[in-house]
Design a protein that fits this description.
The protein has 543 residues and is α/β, with parallel strands linked by helices. The protein contains 15 helices and 19 strands. The two termini are 50 Å apart.
């Protein structure tokens, strides 16, 4: 017997007359493959020798793809033994997926009758009731084999050839992509380290101490701004910018005076950003929760609302207050830019995908925004693949922003709504980045289901002096803003900042790839070699 060559196989199953041969012939213009019909081998060699002869033909197939026409309706004395043997054959013949065809039984009966009358094909007479039994048996076996061999499965109601060809083509193309990713996964050998995310939250004592000092100063500035009718801003933004900026000093050099200067410097920058981007009316509306008396947004803990779902409806409720909330996609680019670049503390526009918002009914501006993009960084794709997750079916939650005083429970409600939208697109997982060094609690991230760490990357902050002479935080995606002649500085290595962690939430239980990443470990960014874009391409579907 000829030694089997490495190749991929697709089984197209269904009882006689459902259109397997017609569908397979129609796929020849889309794929280069070898077509093998098990029925022909049964007719030629009988059930006793058909399997052996069929396998020999598979081994000798000249193409890397084999499409098999499979009959699963034949009676066997020992059902379990038959399926076990067939599962072994599927594994030996590298069957990656099963497409099961079905047509209406009345239509199938007419086809059989026409074949007998015209002599187009030899068919024994089979009663309609027997055809129904054969179909149910074949379909049941196909589903069992799919589970036994962990195969992709597609059911097609073969009423329209054009539609069936389109469905089969897209399915086979996806199966072959997954197989290429499987092969590529075997070449990955990144460095990994043990990592416990639960123990990392709010565990950096120096940052906890600094946050207390910074928060007191920020609160004082907010109270003064409200009293003097000054330029309102998001206190969390100022707090983040000041903490990031302080890492550009050696830790043992930080004094009360330096903290004062850092907060003052970043307050000037935040104020300029608000003045340049928003009118006073917009600022007063967006930051109304700072005043502590608005019924919908309120930073005072006792007066904050909580989001609740009631069927398809969402409400924000508090003491004697109940507001209808709308979840909808945002397409207005000015709002997207405002929330993902101006308001979010990273200050880097993310608008290459879908953006969703939560609105109080009737409001023009949302109180919470989440932007989503397909993963576009090769090192993230590689780390996902190493963790057994399909990078082509994974999206990244890039910007989550809530106005000061927004209701509680936003993360879980927002992510739940977004998951429903993403499932319609065939998305299987979503990821986001967290910085445990600055996290007060892990509640927001975990509430949204983002709890499995898979990637760690170095945390370092870069600042450059902008046109106003102020030190501005910059991220790698925006580093083109920094000219070689401009002043810039970075976080001091002596801080030894905890890494940025990428976490993932899986929508599906079954992973198509081997889980090479050990439980409790993460991939290190610096050690992961570049991902080959020819083998791990971003999906063409626009979101």
């Amino acid at each position: 017997m000829t030694e089997a060559k490495e190749k991929d196989s697709i089984v197209i199953a269904g009882i006689s007359g459902v259109g397997k041969t017609t569908l397979i012939n129609s796929l020849k213009s889309h794929f280069e493959f070898t077509y093998l019909s098990y029925g022909e081998y049964v007719r030629k060699y009988g059930l006793e020798k058909a399997g052996q002869k069929f396998h020999e033909a598979y081994n000798d197939a000249p193409t890397s793809l084999v499409i098999m026409d499979e009959h699963l309706e034949y009676e066997h004395d020992d059902e379990s033994a038959y399926l076990a043997d067939l599962a072994d054959i599927y594994k030996r013949e590298n069957v990656r997926a099963v497409i099961y065809l079905e047509v209406d039984i009345d239509t199938l009966t007419k086809r059989h009758e026409e074949d007998r009358v015209t002599g187009k094909r030899f068919r024994d007479f089979i009663a309609k009731s027997i055809l129904e039994e054969q179909h149910l048996l074949a379909k049941r076996r196909a589903l069992k084999l799919q589970k036994m061999c962990n195969l992709a499965f597609l059911f097609i109601r073969n009423d329209s050839l054009d539609q069936s060809v389109t469905l089969a083509h897209d399915f086979i193309e996806e199966v072959l992509k997954v197989q290429k990713l499987r092969e590529y996964q075997r070449t990955l050998h990144p460095e990994t380290i043990p990592f416990d995310l639960d123990q990392s939250w709010n565990s950096y004592w120096l940052m906890k101490a600094l946050r207390k000092e910074v928060s007191e100063r920020v609160d004082s500035i907010v109270e003064k701004t409200l009293a003097e009718n000054g330029t309102l801003f998001d206190p969390q933004d100022l707090e983040h910018q000041a903490l990031f900026y302080l890492t550009t000093w050696e830790p043992n050099q930080i004094t009360e005076k330096i903290i004062d200067e850092a907060v003052e410097e970043q307050h000037k920058l935040v104020t300029l950003r608000m003045k340049n981007s928003l009118t006073e009316q917009q600022r007063n509306f967006l930051f109304r929760g700072l005043s502590k008396f608005y019924p919908d947004l309120n930073v005072r803990t006792s007066d904050r609302l909580t989001l609740y779902r009631n069927g398809k409806d969402i409400f924000a409720r508090g003491q004697g207050r109940n507001f209808k909330v709308e979840f909808k996609q945002i397409t207005d680019q000015s709002i997207i830019k405002l929330y993902t670049e101006t308001l979010h503390y990273i200050h880097c526009l993310r608008a290459n995908g879908m953006v969703f918002g939560l609105f109080f009914e009737g409001d023009a501006y949302p109180f919470a925004v989440q932007s989503i993009e397909y993963v576009d960084r090769d090192y993230k794709k590689e780390a996902l693949l190493y963790a057994g997750i399909n990078p082509e079916k994974t999206v990244e939650l890039t910007r989550m922003y809530t106005l000061p005083g927004s209701p509680k429970n936003i993360a879980s409600v927002m992510d739940g709504q977004i998951r429903r939208e993403l499932r319609k697109l065939g998305v299987e997982a979503m990821i986001t980045a967290v910085m445990p060094a600055y996290a007060k609690t892990k509640g927001t991230t975990v509430a949204g289901g983002m709890s499995i760490p898979f990637l760690a990357k170095k945390l370092e902050h870069t600042f450059y002096k902008n046109q106003y002479g102020l030190w501005k935080h910059i991220v790698s995606r925006n580093e083109k803003e920094i000219l070689s002649t401009e002043e810039h500085k970075h976080s001091k290595p002596s801080w030894n900042l905890p890494p940025v962690i990428e976490v993932v939430h899986l929508f599906v239980g079954r992973k198509p790839f081997e889980e090479k990443l050990e439980t409790g470990h993460v991939v290190l960014r610096e050690s992961s070699r570049p991902c080959d874009p020819k083998k791990v391409e971003a999906p063409k579907v626009a979101i």
